[in-house]
Design brief:
The complex is a heterodimer of chains A (114) and B (114). With 114 residues, chain A is mainly beta. Chain A contains no helices and eleven strands. Chain A is globular and about 40 Å long. The termini of chain A are far apart. Chain B has 114 residues and is an all-beta fold. Classes of the chains: A mainly beta (114), B mainly beta (114).
Chain lengths: 114, 114
């Protein structure tokens, strides 16, 4: 079984709809992250959480919100989806506290906003 | 602030050709450096890393050497295979601020033809 899972894997929605993307991990890591990937732009950090009570905005948090329901679960919400939020979204985890730590990524959710 | 610059792709090679993907960085501290790979339809996964000057990271035939004097971490492979077709991301993790959240480059797509 995958260590970091994301649901759904694909989602089509309409402008103005609220949607939630979910992430679960079995690695036991405290740190979790949400990234957005657009062609040619690499990865942009949306939100990150260092533990259940610690949530922080990343570089592109406008239009997004998150919830850390448990150590293992970190959800990303689009309150009112717009077409320029069409992208590939990745959840990632890391153990924390090490300059050389590895990030572990989920398989991604491909979102299309019409 | 910190930044990572990668050569633009796509890089198109024939099987068994030599590969170089250039990566240079700007950092305020003494960062750790990483290469991640994203195979089609998957999330990113760590390919290799280096934590100090002159260190060489290696994995699956790929190598990269931490060059502090030129602030570079170029990825090389002596003989590429079709299965190496993927997007490659250079990244750094820097100490200032203590968060250790990596900064990613924009990614370089590699296409290997039989």
């Amino acid at each position: 079984d995958a260590d970091v899972t994301q649901t759904p894997r694909n989602r089509i929605t309409k402008t103005g709809k609220r949607i939630m993307l979910e992430c679960s991990q079995t690695k036991g890591h405290d740190r979790m992250y949400w990234y957005r990937q657009d062609p040619g732009l690499g990865l942009q950090l949306i939100y990150y959480s260092f533990d259940v009570k610690d949530i922080n905005k990343g570089e592109i948090s406008d239009g997004y919100s998150v919830s850390r329901q448990a150590q293992a679960k970190f959800s990303l919400s689009l309150e009112s989806a717009i077409p320029n939020q069409t992208a590939l979204y990745f959840c990632a985890t890391s153990e924390g506290g090490d300059l050389a730590e590895t990030q572990y990524f989920g398989p991604g959710t491909r979102l299309l906003v019409l | 602030g910190d930044s990572v610059t990668q050569m633009e792709g796509p890089v198109t090679l024939s099987e068994e050709a030599f590969l170089t993907i250039n990566c240079t960085y700007t950092a305020t501290g003494y960062p750790s450096l990483f290469w991640y790979v994203q195979y089609p339809g998957e999330g990113l996964q760590l390919l290799l890393k280096a934590t100090k000057a002159d260190d060489k990271g290696s994995n699956k035939g790929f190598e990269a050497t931490y060059r502090k004097e030129t602030t570079s971490f170029h990825l090389e492979k002596g003989s590429v295979q079709v299965s190496d077709s993927a997007v490659y991301f250079c990244a750094l993790s820097d100490r200032p601020g203590g968060s250790y959240i990596p900064t990613f480059g924009r990614g370089t797509s590699l296409i290997v033809h039989p």
